[in-house]
Design a protein that fits this description.
This protein has about 400 residues and is α+β, with helices and mostly antiparallel strands. The protein folds into 3 domains: about 30-270, DD-peptidase/beta-lactamase superfamily (Beta-lactamase), CATH 3.40.710; about 275-355, Peptidoglycan synthesis regulatory factor (PBP3), Domain 2 (Sandwich); about 360-400, no CATH class. The chain is built from 11 helices and 17 strands. The strands form 5 sheets. The chain has a 6-stranded mixed sheet with strand order 14-16-17-12-11-15, with no helix packed on it. The chain has a 5-stranded antiparallel sheet with strand order 2-1-9-8-7, with helices on both faces. A two-stranded antiparallel sheet has the order 3-4. The longest helix is centred in the middle third of the chain and has 22 residues, at about 250-270. It is elongated and about 95 Å long.
């Protein structure tokens, strides 16, 4: 009887939780700033103060890792400086003069957020921490994360060191496509040695064990930033990125960042799925054409457009082309654009391409054809006679088509 009642209770709890998800209720999180982004399209599915600059603690190390991986120098040996050895906790307790492979420092950086590893990586690749931070900021701006300023490679509070939930999502979207990044952030345990000692690390990202499809990314905490986390998960082909900044402080805040992250990701997977808004090569309309015997030319969408959509959302397509065009028109010519809107927001612009042709036919082209035929017969050559444009529609003929 007790087992039966327990089963009923669990079923009821599951049913209530499921019903909340499918109602489309927006996430209610403690974080001061947060965002949910779909990675393939970059579409923002939900946000809270997503463009507000905030301290981001060790989520900084996502960019540190990106620059390190893209340097192609993973097999190099790093000699630890006094500055790196003196970095504050969290740290792997490197010592000045210690020699260690860059690839191993990366494991300490991303699995347990070692600050001394971040400084050692920055100095080895940038010459100085300051130069490496300049490169980090430059890379962020290239990616479109224009409200991000890196002043440390570790994420420790300093000056104007800050980012926004949107910027961190943009950076992470890029990072997930850097070869080796996901493998690095999904490493559960690592053991390696320097020339002085052995190290053992365990990944502190709880999301990897607590959320289906989780595949990243990075925790963070400082006294100024509070508890932060950039998360990522993939289910049924949809890759989502979540960011929470300042979910709280102390023990409560440490746990709250996981609660906030899970709620955001649950909302995304429960309420959004991909929908094809326009299809490549699908006929979009017909273009009226003058100076030809054809009445019109069909045109199609040059490429498909997909978007993660909720059931409450709608989309529309606006065709933007001239009223008419003059021949000649060739297959593949661009005739205009289609503007795709989700709700009332412009989401994508798609070129419209002609799939038919319209050969120019007027007095000018007819006369050119006659003259070229005649002179080719007379001269036994292939002339290319082109008449001035005013021959096209001489006033005395009163020809309009």
């Amino acid at each position: 009887m007790k087992k039966f009642l327990s089963f009923i209770l669990l079923s009821a709890i599951f049913s209530v939780a499921f019903s909340v998800l499918v109602k489309g209720e927006k996430p209610d999180v403690n974080a001061h700033g947060a965002i949910l982004m779909e990675a393939e399209t970059g579409r923002i599915l939900w946000g809270k103060n997503e463009h507000t600059p905030l301290p981001m603690a060790s989520t900084t190390k996502i960019m540190t890792a990106v620059l390190a991986i893209e340097s192609g120098r993973m097999n190099e040996t790093v000699t630890v400086s006094k500055r790196a050895a003196a970095a504050p906790k969290v740290k792997m307790n490197l010592t000045a003069g210690e020699e260690i492979r860059l690839s191993n420092l990366m494991l300490a950086l991303m699995l347990e957020s070692s600050n001394d590893a971040a400084v050692a990586i920055a100095e080895h690749l940038g010459g100085t921490v300051e130069e490496f931070c300049r490169l980090m900021t430059e890379k962020a701006h290239e990616l479109g994360a224009v409200n991000t300023i890196f002043e440390t490679a570790s994420g420790l509070d300093a000056g104007n060191h800050s980012s926004t939930p949107y910027d961190l999502a943009i950076i992470t979207r890029y990072a997930l496509n850097v070869p080796g990044f996901i493998e690095l952030t999904n490493t559960r345990d690592a053991n390696f040695s320097s020339n002085k000692r052995s190290y053992s690390f365990h990944n502190k990202n709880r999301l990897l064990n607590e959320f289906p499809g989780a595949n990243g990314v990075k925790t963070g905490f400082t006294g100024k930033a509070g508890h932060c986390f950039v998360g990522a998960a993939k289910q049924d082909g949809m890759q989502l990125i979540s960011v929470v900044l300042a979910s709280g402080w102390g023990t409560e805040g440490r746990n709250q960042k996981w609660v906030d992250t899970k709620e955001i990701l649950h909302y995304g997977f429960a309420n959004f799925e991909f929908e094809t808004l326009v299809s490549k090569a699908e006929t979009a309309g017909f273009m009226p054409v003058t100076r030809t015997r054809s009445e019109d030319v069909p045109f199609v969408y040059e490429n498909s457009v997909q978007a993660p959509m909720s059931k409450e959302e709608s989309f529309s397509v606006e065709i933007d082309t001239p009223t008419t065009l003059q021949a000649p028109i060739n297959i593949g010519d661009a005739l205009g654009v289609a503007k795709v809107y989700i709700n009332s927001d412009l989401y994508a612009t798609v070129p419209l391409i002609a799939t038919g042709e319209a050969i120019r036919h007027d007095f000018k082209t007819s006369l050119e054809k006659v003259l070229n035929t005649y002179f080719s017969f007379v001269t036994k050559t292939q002339p290319d006679i082109i008449l001035p444009e005013y021959f096209a529609f001489p006033q005395f003929l009163n020809i309009e088509n």
